């Protein structure tokens, strides 16, 4: 005998998705801050003229996009 299906409440699902969205925003800001700072410090140390900062920010964006794809793949399954 199968247990009865528990149907989740739509409001709880929406709040869960909002929580996931906010966590992704916070992660993005953390990636930008950390990798941007590392790139900035490398620019100061080696005199790259902003190339380190740009690389750090692009790496942060790429890492965040990868994270978003992983999270949304779990939501849409």
Question: Can you describe what's shown?
Answer:
The radius of gyration is 19 Å and the shape is elongated. It has one domain (21-76). It contains 2 helices and no strands. With 77 residues, it is mainly α.
Please give a handful of descriptors for the protein shown.
2 helices; 77 residues; elongated; mainly alpha; single chain
Order of helices and strands: HH
Which regions are unreliable across 5 or more consecutive residues at pLDDT < 50?
A: none
Global mean pLDDT: 87
**Overall domain count:** 1
Distance between the termini: 26 Å
Estimated structural class: mainly alpha
- Overall strand count: 0
Q: What is the radius of gyration?
A: 19 Å
Percentage of helical residues?
over 70%
Q: What's the oligomerization state?
A: single chain
The DSSP helix count reads 2
- Which overall shape is indicated by the principal axes computed on the Cα atoms? elongated
Strand content: under 5%
The major sheet is characterized as: none
Q: In a few lines, what is going on in this structure?
A:
82% of the residues lie in helices and 0% in strands.
């Amino acid at each position: 005998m199968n247990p009865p299906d528990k149907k989740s409440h739509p409001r709880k699902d929406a709040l869960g998705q909002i929580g996931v969205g906010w966590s992704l925003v916070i992660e993005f800001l953390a990636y930008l801050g950390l990798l941007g700072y590392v790139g900035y410090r490398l620019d100061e140390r080696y005199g790259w003229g902003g190339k380190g900062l740009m690389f750090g920010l692009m790496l942060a964006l790429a890492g965040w996009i990868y994270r978003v794809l992983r999270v949304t793949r779990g939501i849409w399954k």
